[in-house]
Specification:
Strand content: 25-35%
Oligomer: single chain
Low-confidence stretches: none
Shape: elongated
Structural class: alpha/beta
Number of strands: 12
């Protein structure tokens, strides 16, 4: 009864549970494939001629506060079909994990979901809390493999507008490039590096390139150059976020210049206005708008910059 409950909890129907042991940090489960036969990868015929077997450890989804470690019996079979060209014993295949892999597909999907909302380093820390060993590089490989599979599984839509931006893989160290489809609100592609050569190569590989009429970029010179080479003649549009950021930056330069010219006792009052200057007037409280307008009447240079 206990083994049946554990089999249901593992959600790995191809296995039967032979033994369970709980340690301070892990739940260890010994399993083997329920089927007594295997299909030859060469000819596809079934065989029950076992050559040998070994036990490998494989990590599965955590349970509660503990990591789950599977001890999987892996058998090697001989193909006895007379017309088969398989001359060496072969290892049986599993639905739940790939050959040579030390993680189940379920754990890889869990890692992928974590990596969608936190950094690779934080994923490593999260799994370490369950005493599941994994490296940053492994998390990155799992994420990239499953993300690529997800992209390939999505239907391909022709779009007239694409977006091009950078994203952080390792903050302040490594950056990648993301191509988006703003019309259908989806990611088209994401890849490491942001240099012109790589961006050009991926833009040229886009499906339905002939339908693209405009590219939205983050005002990067290398992105502009890449678009002009890979998609000549398309309109290049600076995205709203970066345009507004540049406007706020220019306004803040004027504010700092006005602040610097003020006597020492008045500098603080100008400094405190920086957030009101950056926010839209519609987001300010009535008393904040009145205070801002009163100050701008006394500073024509800053008022002109603000109104622009």
């Amino acid at each position: 009864m206990q083994d049946n409950c554990i089999t249901i909890w593992l959600n790995l129907p191809e296995f039967i549970v032979e033994r369970v042991r709980e340690t301070a940090h892990h739940i260890e489960v010994w399993v083997r494939k329920a089927s007594l036969i295997a299909l030859c990868p060469q000819c596809g015929h079934p065989t029950d001629a076992i050559h040998d077997e070994r036990i490998d450890d494989v990590w599965h989804l955590p349970f509660g506060t503990k990591g789950v470690r599977l001890w999987v019996t892996k058998r090697r079979f001989w193909c006895v079909h007379p017309g088969c060209g398989q001359r060496q014993p072969f290892t049986e295949r599993f639905e739940s994990l790939d050959l040579g892999q030390r993680r189940t597909h379920a754990l890889d999907r869990y890692i992928y979901r974590l990596a969608q909302r936190m950094s690779y380093t934080d994923v490593v820390k999260e799994l370490a809390s369950y005493h599941i060993p994994i490296s940053d590089n492994t998390v990155r490989r799992v994420y990239q493999r499953l993300a690529q599979a997800e992209l390939e599984a999505r239907p391909s839509w022709a779009t007239s507008v694409i977006g091009l931006d950078e994203f952080s893989i390792r903050k302040q160290h490594t950056y990648g490039t993301i191509i988006t489809d703003p019309q259908h609100r989806r990611v088209v592609n994401a890849f490491e590096k942001r240099d012109k050569e790589n961006v050009v190569r991926h833009l040229k590989q886009l499906p339905h390139r002939e339908a693209i009429q405009a590219v939205v970029i983050d005002m990067s010179g290398s992105f502009r150059s890449a678009v002009e080479e890979a998609l000549p003649g398309r309109a290049i549009v600076a995205d709203k976020f970066h345009v507004v950021a540049r406007v706020i930056e220019a306004l803040d330069k004027v504010r700092k210049r006005v602040q610097k010219a003020k006597p020492k006792g008045e500098k603080r009052s100008v400094f405190r206005l920086r957030y009101r200057l950056r926010r839209g007037r519609e987001k300010l409280k009535p008393e904040e708008r009145e205070a801002l307008d009163a100050f701008l009447k006394q500073e024509p240079e800053l008022r002109t910059a603000y109104e622009l």
